[in-house]
Amino acid sequence: LGCNEWQPYVGAAGAPEEGFAVDLTREALRRMGWKLDFRTRPWARCLEEMRRGTLDGVLCAYRVPERRWVFGRVPLGLGPEWSDEFVILRRRGSAWRYRSPEDLKSARLALVSGYVYPEPIAGRLRAGGSGLALVTGDDPTTRLLELVAMGRAEATVEQRLPLEAVLSSRPDLRSKVEEVGTLPGWRVYVALRPDYPNAEAVMRELDRRLLEVYRSAEFGRILGRYGLRPAASAPGPTAGGHVPAP
Predict the structure, then answer these.
(1) 164 vs 7, 79, 200, CA distance in Å?
(2) How far, in whole angstroms, is CA 121 from its chain's centroid?
(3) pLDDT at residue number 246
(4) Which of 7, 100, 152, 200 has its CA 20 to 30 A from that of 207?
(5) In terms of residue numbers, what domain contains 62?
(6) Are residues 157 and 111 in contact, defined by beta-carbon separation less than 8 angstroms?
(7) Are residues 90 and 178 in the same domain?
(8) Confidence class for position 235, pLDDT limits 50, 70, 90
């Protein structure tokens, strides 16, 4: 399975902390008698390798109609019912203002190549991406924030946990951006390529094992390695914080 870095969900393959979604999936697969072969890739490369059949699947994928993959029904998160939110960040001092999602139609946005986004951003991508700055690489969230901080984009849209993970380690970026709004978030899942052998049956069993891990003491230990706690005891991370609004 592959994914780009998206801390705290996913870190670099082979690192001491590969991300809680990687650890959660690895533990679920272990209970199936399987072993996880996790690979860090730019997201666009993950998509290409899945098309070629050299990658079996991805972690932290949005379950949307555009993706013709085999998805599980149990998400990867702070709990099986938990959902993050999209945060809209702009460069401090930018003349661009956010009042409603309609304002995202005119902003110079930094986005990740190959990602899917909610409307109206999705419409801009379908129309050819004019006025968008697309990034790639193993750690795209950091790159999004760098573009906004440097003024090469007016704003970006990303899930809160990954944003906070970057900003907590990069005070130089935190001082240059500010939160101006949110959108409902999407849950993230393991997904297999459609031609993977017995993909539907594999995902059903993985769902069952993921729920086992969520209900076990091991889940709290996994999250604890990343300064997080299960959603049943708290709605979000124990560390990090809200980016002040203007």
Answers:
(1) 9, 18, 34
(2) 16
(3) 28
(4) 7
(5) 2-81+187-224
(6) yes
(7) yes
(8) very low
